[in-house]
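Final report, Chapter 2: Outcomes

The project's central promise was a pipeline that accepts a single protein chain and returns its three-dimensional structure in a standardized token representation, suitable for archiving and comparison. That pipeline is now operational. To close this chapter, we reproduce one record exactly as it appears in the project archive, with the input sequence first and the structure output second.
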Amino acid sequence: MADAPLPIGWDMETTKGTTYFINHLDQSTTFHDPRLIGIAKPSRKKPKVTPPKYQRDLYGKVQCLLANLHLCQEDQGELQIVVSRDTLLEDSFNLISNLDGVTLTRRLFIKFNGEEGLDYGGMSREWFLSLSREITKAERLFFSLDKKGCSYNIHRKAPKLKNFESYFYFIGQLIGMACYHAKLLEAHFSPIIWRCLLGETPNLSHLAYIDPEMHTGLEAVRDAEDVDDWDLTFAVTEERGKKKKDIELKKNGLSIPVTNQNKNEYINLVVDHYIGHMIKPLESMKEGMNMVVPSHLLEEFTAEEFEQIVCGSQTIDISDLRANTDYTDIEESSATIKWFWEILGTMSEPNLHQFLHFVTGSTKVPVGGFKHLCGSKGPLKFNIQLKKTSGLPTAHSCFNRLELAVYNNKDKLKSDLLYAITETTGFGLQ
């Protein structure tokens, strides 16, 4: 029974050599193994100690969400998704957009054309990662980067695209599937998107994420007792290339002054100018997402928390990874392993994300850190295994496993590792 998976919504922890079980659904802890309920008779002896009290944190909230999702969906059977890397978006859209919510909750098996690998989790993670990169490509016109180049908002031209509602519905399905299957997307969406996916309607407060100066100015207009002398008109000035252009918010807007009587209309028109094009795409995204993840199950999450559920964390804590690493046929005290951790500790951030992608199929860290890395059947720690033959380091991302040969030279290990994580693409058979 020790190798059997725990019931959904349960975790097992060991503290000071004592193992206990966590029930996230009813927020309790116990020494009784839930896998033995109905098999072994519980002891009538009162335990001398009690298990640690349940701690309600984001990880616990996520586990409760996942348990409730699986309980309310009939997620039996398998869903095989066959795609080509060259036409990844088109292949995925043509299949996913025609499926219902129940089908999308089935066990995923991803197959990339021309690659021999079997999906034990790694290929699914790769599919979500690659697809999220594909939908944010500039030429797609679905999303555009904000002024700081940090996050994506819905592109102004998106509502003019052919079948845009179907595509944004599909993007919502993808977000829902990532949440349901506990996979991570690489989608640096603006807080506007996350907040609206949780039920908010685009409004003045959201403008702060697009144009902070305009947002501050509009709040000043809203709160001012008298704006008659502010010399404002129903127009906004925007930079188009190297030139500035006045854009009228209504017919003859440049000649219509903003007054105390019409300032609310002015504010609404400015907000609509910057955000109005997002409304229909966001509605489609939310509808697609709620097909897989019902909205009422997300009510206790903030936008920031929901983003972390879907996208994980970009921060890679090497000490956390090391503390949650197992070793097979190689000693942690060996020179190769010591050099490996030293090399990882000096890697650049881009190389660290390439390394994480190489060994797990994702560039992000799940909620709760590396102790909650998953394989095909549940939690599965990062594992370093001795490679019996010489050659470059190899990885089995389905199993979060890195295989290293014994090295006699730290520089050689570093050059081989960097080459492996930067030049390797695709999946083969284990």
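Archive annotation: DSSP finds 14 helices and 15 strands in the chain.
This record, like all others produced under the grant, will remain available to the consortium after the project formally closes.
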